[in-house]
Amino acid sequence: MSIALPLTSEAYRQAQQRLARGWNTWDTRSLLTQVLLPDGLAVALGVKEYYRGNALNQIQIGRREEGAEEVTLGPHAIDGAYTQVTVRWRGVELSVETAHAGDDLVVLVTPLANQAQPATLTVSAGLLWNRPGAVRRAGESLVAELPGRKVAVFGTAPHYDDPYVDITGPYLALRLDGPVGVSTGERRDLARIREIVAAARPAAAASPHEELVRDAIAWNTVYEPAGQRVVTTVSRLWNVGKRGGYALFCWDNYFNALLAGLFSADLAYANAVEMTRELTPAGFVPNVAQGTGRRTYDGSQPPVGALAARELYRRFGDRWFLEEVFPGLLRWNRWWWRTRRDGELLCLGSTAFEPQWPSPQDIPRIDQHFGATCESGCDDHPIFADIPYEKSTGLMLAHDVSLNSEYAMDCAALADIAAELGHDAERDELRERGAAVADAMERLLWSRETESYRSRRTDTGDFTADISPMSLYPLLAGVGAGGRDRRMVERYLRDERYFGGRWAVPSTPRTDAESASRSYYWHGRVWPPMNFLVYIGLRRAGLAEERRWLAERSAELAMKEWNEARHVHENYSANTGEGCDKANSEPFHSWGALLSLVPLIESGAVDYFREGA
């Protein structure tokens, strides 16, 4: 198992303790399981239908197999004080609302559609993760005996015996011939449960974008028991498929920290700290760390951790947080320069190693071209197709425009953190290195012919033939001397032959007919982190008109499927704005909320990346 490093500060221990308490959707395996922390008591809801006599005991969003449940995720308070889910399965449709009543949990289940014979709601209880205690059924209730106390679970409908519900352990079976309530702690009637739920329903958010960000983060926040930590993952379904219970992806989780920072300093800190604590012995944050014990010891992902940490510090001002993450972020920054440098600039790479536990996920990537492209965060992007991979060095044969831009940005953000902490030598080291990279980018990666920054081959000296929005990333590092930034942006960003149009920004130019027609993964799709980084670059460059345009495009794209289905997608079609048109676009992926973060920053509702800061 991948066990997190020991906690290093009392302040962070306290932050995790504040997070890991109360009823919430802590268990990644089912949206309808509520868990009480720190006890680990789970109350799990399931459904049995009687046309075929099948039971559904674990509910997820995003399953695509035939006969899978369909789920619409409603509002979710960050602390779990209210949640709402609609589940449709085999002719049964249920609205499930939960709320807190002091330290208790109440649940209101309302049938919206049913089979001829009404479905059954199953309510089971148990102790997760081998937490101490026991659960038994006592007539019309379940009783959990926990260390030092008891917690009872009651239903508003009478229990009836149905032994074929596919549950191991005590349960209640309640007929869904009308609304049914569940409560813990004390018996409450349906009217009282309705009152509690109605009072807990959140008022309309100031902006639908705030609601989108909140729910994208809250629904994907889980308790990870191996590391005894609360953390936001990118997708609950991804955690349980082939990743052993959880998966922390590098730049995804630093983005999750920024997103969580709109609502909870503790959760924002947890996301940044836990990702940084996954640092490998070699000194880098891996592409992914997961519950099977697998880490990508061959490579990392874009270095955005210092950027996130700096902005969270500017928002909340907790010095201990910088002290917590700075050592790891500094090791990571130095690792890039030591391991991925070829001459004056960096190349993407994949370091050879022998996995202790070989994984089929590693087969196509370790010390291979695909592994190196994954380090960009853009996996199968066609811009890398014609760049060779050199096994003797473990490097792609190109100075990558995106990686060097992100690295220079990382140096600047990390230097700001070093200065705040009084680490003058490290501040000077980082500023010098960042300036050297930015200077080399100006000299080596600017193509006069195309008026754009391009990756450049280290073997031939040629610029890469194709352009992508990554050519705009140098603006993140303040690169663009002599008006180059403005000329490039004016030529490419809003031109509909390249990256303009209603559904923007496509990951490849619209003139790339194959990618535009295929619209598959990084071939022509719109990716939220790409929009976000381009926006931050435009903001730094002072290109106000262009950044407003991108904020408008991002806002419209985010709202399209949010208004239609409350989806927050991993990626979107640049032709139609749809996310559901492709199976490999996860429908409730946390970083989809970056599209909403852009207009929130632009409007001033969120004070990240303040001008002049």
Automatic annotation (TrEMBL):
One of its GO terms (biological process) is oligosaccharide metabolic process. Pfam families: MGH1-like_GH (PF22422). Signal peptide: none annotated. InterPro entries: 6-hairpin_glycosidase_sf (IPR008928), 6hp_glycosidase-like_sf (IPR012341), Glycoside_hydrolase_63 (IPR004888), MGH1-like_GH (IPR054491). Residues 248-585 form the Mannosylglycerate hydrolase MGH1-like glycoside hydrolase domain. Keywords: Glycosidase, Hydrolase. It comes from the Bacteria. Gene3D superfamilies: 1.50.10.10. Belongs to the glycosyl hydrolase 63 family. GO terms for molecular function: Glc3Man9GlcNAc2 oligosaccharide glucosidase activity. This is Mannosylglycerate hydrolase MGH1-like glycoside hydrolase domain-containing protein.
